[in-house]
Amino acid sequence: MEPFKTLTSTVAPLDRTNVDTDQIIPKQFLKRIERTGYGDFLFFDWRQTPEGKPVPEFVLNDPRYKDAKILIAGKNFGCGSSREHAAWALSDFGFRVVIAPTFADIFFSNAGKNGIVLIRLSETDVDTLLRNAETIPGYKLTVSLQDQTVTDDGGFKATFEVDPFRKYCLLEGLDDIGLTLRHASELDRFEKQHDNATWLHAK
């Protein structure tokens, strides 16, 4: 998992509430056995028509927001089923930060474990950022995880809360496997002791 320190990026405004995980990554793509490639199917039903043609008014099809790594959305983002694939799809598409007033709890946990910084701001602040991203060409935000701030070049500044343990993992780029491997020597020692004890008991 890539460490997250500070990010400055174009902002993609998704002015919708209650964005559920079945819209983030539709269920027909959950049969894939790979963990990568889900970005191609992010918001699949919103990005294209049933005939497979791009929907030009959808934000991710707008060339102004190409390469955006920060997504702004309405409240209750990530609701619905608990599929971790939703976090994989956002990350694989290139998003490192999602800002919204509220998030579904399970999605919040899944996203953090996959290197995505989820930031809760007030509805007023989110509305301001949505309008800025929609109306200011090339609008960018800077997110500092260390300082826990969101700022722009126009004077906007907001602070956000983050769990200290999750902050540590994101700053260090540690997922669950990475955390476990930090104790590799202790695990090897325990396994060796366990194997020796088992061998002596077998005798």
Quick take:
By secondary structure, the protein is of the alpha/beta class.
Label this structure with key terms.
alpha/beta; 203 residues; 8 helices; Aconitase, domain 4; 7 strands; 36% helix
The coarse silhouette is globular
User: SSE order, as H and E?
Assistant: EHHEHEHEHEEEHHH
Based on CA atoms alone, the radius of gyration comes out at 20 Å
Strand order of the largest sheet: 4-3-2-1-5-6-7
The helix tally amounts to 8
- The CATH superfamily is identified as Aconitase, domain 4
Content-based structural category: alpha/beta
Task: Provide the β-strand percentage band.
Answer: 15-25%
What would you note in describing this structure?
With 203 residues, this protein is of the alpha/beta class. The protein has a single domain (6-172), classed as Aconitase, domain 4 (Alpha-Beta Barrel), CATH 3.20.19. The protein has helices at residues 21-24, 44-47, 85-93, 105-113, 123-135, 164-172, 176-181, 184-202, and strands at 6-14, 70-73, 97-100, 117-120, 140-144, 149-151, 157-159.
